[in-house]
Amino acid sequence: MRNLKLVESVQVGDVTALVGAQCICVDYDTKAVYCATANGMSMLDPNTRQVTKQISLVSDGYLPPDGSGIIVDIEHLPDQMAVCVATWRGDLILWNTSSNELEGVGSVDSGLRSVSWSPDQELLALTTGQDTLIMMTRDFDPILEVPIHPTEFGEAEPINVGWGKKTTQFHGSEGKQAALQTAEPLKVESMEDDGRTRISWRGDGQCFAISAICPKTGERSLRTWTREGVLYSTAEMVPGLEQALAWKPSGSLIVSSQRRPNKHDIIFFERNGLRHGEFTLPFGVHDVKVKEVFWNIDSTVLAVWCEDLPPEGDTAEFAPKSYVELWTVGNYHWYLKQNLEFAASDRVETVQWDTEQAYRLRVVTSSGQYLQYTWAWTTSVSQGSVVDDQATVGVIDGAMLLLTPFKDMIVPPPMAAFTVQMPCAINQVAFSAENNDFAVELSDGRVALLSFGEKDKTGDENMSVTIRPAAAPKCVLPRLCGIFSIDMTNTSTHPLMCYHLTWINPDTIVFCTLDGAGSCLLVSATVDYTAKTIVAKDNMCVGGSVAALAVGAHTSCLAVHLTDGTVCRYTPGTNTLLPWETSTGKELRLPQCCPLVDVCCIGGEEVVIGLTERYRLYANDIELASNCTSFSVHSEYLLLSTHAHTCRCLSLTHTLAELQTSTEKCLTPVELTRRIERGSRIVCVETHGTKVVLQMPRGNLEVIHPRALVLASVKHCLDQLKFADAFVLMRKHRINMNLLHDHNPAVFLNNIDSFVRQIDSVSYVNLFLTALLNEDVTKVMYSAAYNNSEERSRSQDDGPRKVDIVSDHIRGALERIDASKYLLSILTAMVRRTTPHLQAALDKIKSLPKDCVKEALDYLLFLVDVDALYNVALGMYDFDLVLLVAQSSHKDPKEYLPFLNNLRQMEENYRRYSIDLHLKNYSGALYHISQCGQDHFSECLNLVTQHALYAEALPLFDVASEQYKKIAFAYGQHLSSRGHHEEAGIIYVRSSSHQMALDEFVKCSNWRQAMCMAAELKFSTLQLTDLSRTLAGRLQETRRHVEAATLLSDYADDVEEAIVTLIEGSEWDEALRLMYKFGRTDFIETNLKPTLTDTYQHHMTFLEGARADFERHLCRLAIVRQEKRKAWLDLMEGAGDPGRADADLYSDTSSAMGDSVSGRSVGAGSQRSYASSSQQSTTSSKMSGRSGKSRRKAERKRWSLREGSPHEELALVDVLAKIIRRVDDMKGEVSSLMKTQLLFGSGQQAASLQTQLDALLQLIDKSLDHIWENGLTGEGPAGQGNSVSGRLGRREFMVESMGMHV
Q: Which residues form the ELP1 N-terminal second beta-propeller domain (predicted)?
């Protein structure tokens, strides 16, 4: 689906030294071109357009002075700084280009007929006038000499096992005599064969082919030889075989030409000599002769050099024209992409492909003109600037243009939706920047304009142009506006004089051309529809060579990209060329020359997009990708295919800086990247739709709908309140239906009636309701498509109430619009709530007419479990409704009739109690059994204790009643068994069980309530002392030293023990208060100061160790994250999923790769995956069978700090958070310690402790942003330090806040 676009044209005219050129070669270091003529050699510098060196071969006798000399071949040898020249007479000459001297290195008496160097220039193959093959080394030492017409077939001769002899075969109507006939020898049928021998090497230099005429039989034969000079095979005899010969560099085919009685073909051979296809030249049988064929270096383009043949009987005055045709193949069809037609007065003398730049061709003409053309691949597709753009792609095939509007249909090549047949070959196609119209440049220099608009006076009924639909026309066909000649002066008359054709508007066309001196001109021309001419209005010299033109995104200006990388802005009509300035005011210069250029708006800025031949994609001077194979611009995304076999969608709403940051950090979300088949390229994109057309390497097409484009179209529809269109898109492309609401909840709920009316389908409404989830898909599943703050601010977090809110709104809208029509949808809305309203649904069904009840009930049974619905009906205590549900559910009457009959015989409250108990509605059962009186209290108490209904049971009885106290006592026992001792004590108090309450308060260390209970129980002084000491010991274990000291001093009257307790708990101020109150200051020296020293040493040791651990883990965290980024970069730049060797064989349409691709977690905060839910479920089921100890061990092992473990990053964040939290917790202890040290003159210790803590806090403060990056949240260990980081971000150092300077 691609065409060859002329990127650069170089012309050096009227070079006398090039007149009569026979061969050329190139010095690829200096770019100098060497040319051989009948008189000698010359060197041309295309940059200066001057002949810098010349040398005569006549003066030394290598060529005859009459101008009849023939140079067979020349080759530049860079290591010798010389050019090797081979003459027809048989001389091998070295021309030293530095000293300008000639050296004869060999001579063949019989003369040389063809010479060819191997691609590595290690071997030289020559054929002589005696029909022998001579092979030499690079030092011109002969290796072997063999005849080129051996009698044997070669090494690849087929083995004959003796079967299928001609005499034993059936010959049909020819009879048995056909077996006795002998084949007549083939004769040379092509009289235009020049009779010369040709040699062509394979690209790897391991084989070469020789095409020569046998002097005995007159047949032209083709033989292949190995590098060692051994005959490998002889091709089958082909009548009409001509002299042209070229071996495809990739090695698969050998090409030649054949003239048949009814057509002229380019034919192909395999290495073993067998035929392998052909294609026909677009000429008559005797119109042209094929002089040579040439493959470009990457084997993608075949150049065919042809020349006109004179008419019969008119050969004297005939001057032939020359043609150079460029052919490519795709899907087993050969396309003629370019046709260079040279006038008879300036026909082609020699042609050569560049061996470094694959699409550069050099031509020297008979008048001494040197022409250099450079092409690049491009896709000719409509611009897409209008909403009704058809995404039409034009493919050149000779004089036929194949057109397909991919918006409406997909037609695989080489077929097309319709074709346009032109009077001569097509060289270029340019679509209008305003609509779907297109211009076609013909090989004769004229331009045809075609339009899809209404026919008017500008139409042209030119019979030389034919437009044919491929089948019944399902698309609009264009009409011909006319074939226009270009009217301009002082320009080149050579082929492709008009290139970079750009149709800006119906009246203006801009293109590039060369003036007579070879300078590049930018021409703005006006279309004259009446005179059928394109008149050059303005032209200006650009001061360089133009590589590409691109129309501005929203303006009529052009981006002019020069081969040196410069980008200029040109506005037709102003005739001024200004530098293209970026938003920062900087003049734009692309880092490399980009043959493919486009202009689009990125982040509100008009940006130039360029793709180099080396697959680097630039937006202005910023590199977006280094492995891009193609790109296309969508209305909201920039799409590109990569060598990693992915299609990436870059949002145009981002700024260039954001795109660059995302690319460098490899943060491309999975939703914006999609795997495609290996080697796929983007053909076109439906600019305002979802369709992306890809072409595979073999030529077939594949259409995909990237998720990013689908979401963009859905968002556009929802913004315009086109709910029906959005619903169809989402249903077709399997987008989660929750997006209808989550895109803009407020707007959706306010327009819920419009939504229902547009959908207008019960099944569609039901589909939407059944897909509802209690989560915001714009924040989870489609977060990448809702990454800007404006879109995120629209969403509101309804949390677990979302399904209920939407279901209620839908239900209200359905009842308002047509309750009878949407009955089933109303029922769906009732049961889709978080807590299904089954009772309301049954009431709704019960109120329906009898003829509608069964259908509604059957549908409800389809939505919910039959047993659940039966139980709800039973819980309504309506036996008629229960029987209706049971009968509709096909239950066995033997199952439910005896049970229902038994219930009918019970008292009302007890019957309801039995029903609730059967339905496990224990709260309802408790209420009804409490109404049954004292006789059933034992059942009530059993129900309460069995199902822990204490809180519900207590309000049902009087506080002073015996039933209340029994239930309260049982409640206290229940709480005590669960470890809720304080609550149990309170309940025991309400049941007047004070001793039990005291025991519970002691267990929970609630010493105040325990002392109250002791007073209630009239404890003695001794009992109070024992109780206080017991409680003090419990309080000390939980580090509640102040409360323990209060008990010891107030109830046990033990001041000494209270002081010791306070010192042990680092409660320095309270301990000093008691010492001075009771006159026990002796404890300062004996207990306080030693404990201060020990605590100081403990804190210093902890802070030093904490700092060392913190720095070590922080350093390791940086290394782990760097390795993760590198692995992600390798994944994006490499060959896809590294865990699957054949991953690149699958496209995204295959379900085989879906789980492995989308289930892979690639970011620190991306631990959740929808596609891998089955795998997680399997893991959970395995884990559920483990014991608690095993699960804890497995969890600790999972968050291991071992280097290289899967979750090492999160484990490091976890341990750093623990260190931060511990340091944050000890700030109060350190502050109290430093104050006490200052009281007793230990200021130096306090200062060192403050310095150590201050240094650690500063280190933590600086490291917070590095620890919690990449959007780490509170899930798992990674979020344990978030609250700590918030506190430390607002902290103040304690000692500094006190104003102390120590």
A: 395-683
- CA 1178 – CA 518 distance, rounded (Å): 72
Q: DSSP 3-state assignment of 230?
A: coil
371 near 430, Cβ under 8 Å?
no
For residue 1180, the Cα-to-chain-centroid distance in whole angstroms is 32
Residue with tokens 């549908």: 859
Residue 1170 has pLDDT above 80, yes or no: no
Q: Is the dihedral of CA 1280, 1281, 1284, 1289 positive or negative?
A: negative
d(CA 578, CA 555): 15
For tokens 């206290």, the residue is 972
Contacts with 674 (C-beta within 8 Å, 6 or more apart), sequence order:
646, 647, 649, 704, 706, 707, 1148
558 strand-pairing partners:
551, 570
**Helix, strand, or coil (residue 228):** coil
Calculate the CA 475 to chain-centre distance: 32
What is the Cα–Cα distance from 974 to 941, expressed in whole angstroms? 13
1122-1147, pLDDT tens digit by residue? 888 888 777 766 544 434 434 333 34
CA gap 199, 243 in Å, rounded: 10
- Over residues 1169-1191, mean pLDDT: 46
Distance, CA of 136 to CA of 641 (rounded, Å): 47
At 1292, list the tokens. 């103040």
| Region label for 309, one of left (φ > 0), alpha (ψ between -120 and 50) or beta (otherwise) | beta
> Hey, which residues does 133 pair with through a beta bridge?
127, 146
Write down the pLDDT at residue 233. Answer: 94
Of 776, 775, 781, 777, the closest CA to residue 669 belongs to 781
The Cα–Cα gap between 1003 and 997 comes to 10
CB burial string 1177-1206: b at 16+ within 10 A, e below: eeeeeeeeeeeeeeeeeeeeeebeeeeeee
Give yes or no for a contact between 294 and 268, defined as CB atoms under 8 angstroms apart: no
d(Cα 747, Cα 737) in Å, to the nearest integer?
A: 16
Helix (H, G, I), strand (E, B) or coil at 1099: helix
Quote the strand ranges of 604-691, DSSP E.
605-611, 617-619, 622-625, 628-633, 637-642, 646-651, 673-675, 681-685
The closest alpha carbon to 690, from 738, 643, 639, belongs to 639
Torsion, Cα 340 345 349 354, to 10 degrees, reads: -40
Distance (Å, whole) CA 1013 – CA 88: 128
Per DSSP, the three-state class of 913 is helix
Asked if omega into 414 is within 30° of 0 (cis), the reply is yes
Token pair recorded at residue 1157: 């691709």
Q: What is the pLDDT of residues 1031-1050, one digit of tens each?
A: 888 888 888 888 888 888 88
Q: Quick one: 698 exposed, middle or buried, by C-beta within 10 A (0-12, 13-18, 19+)?
A: exposed
Share of residues in the chain with pLDDT > 70 (%): 85
**Is residue 1258 helix, strand or coil?**
helix
**Taking the model in full, what pTM does it have?**
0.74
Distance CA 609, CA 553 (A): 11
| Beta partners for residue 351, in sequence order | 363
304 with 325: CB under 8 angstroms?
yes
Residues 1007 and 1030: their CA atoms lie apart, in Å, by 10
Nearest CA-CA partner of 595 in 5, 1242, 1006, 1039: 5
Q: Are 1199 and 1031 in contact (CB under 8 A)?
A: no
C-alpha distances out from residue 199 to 11, 267, 479, Å: 30, 17, 49
Distance between CA atoms of residues 522 and 500, nearest Å: 9
- Tell me the pLDDT of the chain averaged across its residues: 83
CA dihedral of residues 487, 488, 489, 494 (deg, nearest 10): -90
Q: What pLDDT is stored for residue 1181 in this prediction?
A: 43
DSSP state, residue 423: S
Query: In this structure, what is the dihedral angle of CA atoms 964, 967, 968, 972, given to the nearest 10 degrees?
Result: 170
